Here is the input.
Amino acid sequence: MLFRSKMPDKEMVNLVMGITQPQSGKIRTSRDGSLREVPDTLRSTMMLTTANVSLHNVLSNDDSSGTAGSMRVLEIFFPHIPQSEKISGDDFLYALAQNSGHIGEQFVQYIVKNSASVGTRVREMMRKLDLRGKFLPSERFWSAAMAAALIGGEIAFELGLIQFDLNAIFDWLIEVQLPH
Here is the structure.
């Protein structure tokens, strides 16, 4: 069963901002049951969502945080699939639904064991993207998300888990996604 819901615009803005903003004023319980305030913590979370509407359009309705929110969203447009391609699209979605994340365990083990070098690789890729794509400082979330995805892809490729052409993905990010 597929559940569909329309999140109110203000909640979408709060969601986008809350993923990357410092968190403060939270109260937690200690092991002994006493209450304690959690100090401000920085966040660096990535989230993947799908929708039938542009999140950028929703965020543009909120003048106070719309621009800041949009700078935190890397939205990928998927064109309408023509009726002539419906059957192959259905087959693709069925095959995708059969994937139970079989590469996840091996991938995460690698990341945990090599977190320092993975972090270095992500920062190096971010610099490469920043130079090639001429990213502005306000677009830092975009180049960070792209770098994390590319390095994740490189690692999965090195582990023999995927066979994507990552150079083509890099070029697509710069030449198609970024201008969009």
Q: What stands out?
A: The mean pLDDT is 79. The first strand starts at residue 27 and ends at 29. The first helix runs from residue 9 to 20. The two ends are 33 Å apart (CA to CA).
